[in-house]
Amino acid sequence: MVSRKGNVPGASQRVATSASYSPSLIAGAFPRPNIGAHYKALFTVLFSLCVIFSVTDMLSTAVALRMGLVESNFVLLAIGRALGLDTINTLGLTKIAFITGSFWAASYGVQTKNDKMRTRALLVLSGLVVMLAIVSINNLYWVTVG
Questions:
Q1: Which of 41, 54, 65, 133 makes the best surface tag, with the fewest CB within 10 Å?
Q2: Overall domain count for the chain
Q3: pLDDT for 45-86, tens place per residue?
Q4: Whether residue 12 sits in one domain with residue 68
């Protein structure tokens, strides 16, 4: 509605509000939802799963080695040979590295304000969880069958 000031009651108010309209003010009226609590819970769960699957892998490998089965992870065996460690100590060292790395990724994912970096931390943790779950299930299978 186009009108002159004073001709229509309330027109001065309309002119003032229409003159002060800007998309940024409207966008600012709807704050971005706080999703930090959801990310904190997600990263906590993923880190906990990394720890659980690492411990499961460690224990099931120890049982399998006592049963006479051999370690088939060539990278783990190469690290052990390079450091002069036996299989179980090398496995313990790699589990400490996995847990430390997953803790760092979870902490970084919770604390960062950058959505891309949070997504990358989430992908790293998710990949670790999937890998450790597969390894744990494989070990448990061979321990129960063997």
A1: 41
A2: 2
A3: 999 999 999 999 999 999 999 999 999 899 999 999 999 999
A4: no
Provide the token pair at 45.
Answer: 């769960």
Q: 117 and 139: one domain?
A: yes
**Cβ–Cβ under 8 Å, residues 90 and 79:** yes
Pair 50, 79 in one domain: yes
Domain hosting 24: range is 1-31
> Roughly what angle, to the nearest 10 degrees, separates helices 87-111 and 115-145?
150
| Chunked mean pLDDT (size 10), the chain, 146 residues | 52 50 52 66 95 96 93 93 95 95 94 91 95 95 88
